[in-house]
């Protein structure tokens, strides 16, 4: 079984790749250099892909800074020190317009070429920062699109399935699962606003959610936050 796995190098996508490999998928990892301020994540993605034995790892390059309107792709400050309640409220400025739709479109194209029937994406609808493209409704809608828009599906050769094994897990449950799968946490990167040396800021939403997950899981994070 072949599957394309979206891989940012973060905790969730890395766990997703490890899970797909455990379940017997021949995985093709796909990452994106889209002008993000935390571009160091691509180094993490390469290390994770190699560590977990991905059949191939490709990085697609395009520039979402042309559109901006996000703290990750424009000169807008990344929010720091927000409470869990704040994170679950309004959609934050770190939301990148239509990012998962764009990423999944690339993954769908590669999957069709590979004659793969699955796409793995590490979206999460519980401990997350309020992004609309992490919700089950979005994933269900995109899966319908995938099976309407591809030659392989229309001809009945392949039915595309979007796998979201983490979507209803808490961050602590994801950390525990990753540990069970043997993921090397040292290879991952979660921070939205690392310093020039790539060290995490420890205060952005992603850093805080990661810390919360490890603390609640009772596991020591080997990365300094």
Describe the model.
With 225 residues, the chain is α/β, with parallel strands linked by helices. The protein has one domain: 3-Layer(aba) Sandwich (Rossmann fold), CATH 3.40.50.620. Helix content is 38%, strand content 11%. It is built from 8 helices and 5 strands; from the N terminus they run E-H-E-H-E-H-H-E-H-H-E-H-H. It has helices spanning 11-22, 41-51, 84-87, 99-114, 136-149, 151-154, 171-181, 205-217, and strands at 2-6, 26-33, 56-61, 118-120, 161-163. The relative contact order is 0.18. The model has no long low-confidence stretch (mean pLDDT 95).
Helices and strands, with pairings:
Layout: E1 2-6, H1 11-22, E2 26-33, H2 41-51, E3 56-61, H3 84-87, H4 99-114, E4 118-120, H5 136-149, H6 151-154, E5 161-163, H7 171-181, H8 205-217
Parallel strand pairs: 1-2, 1-4, 2-3, 4-5
Helix pairs in contact: 1-7, 7-8
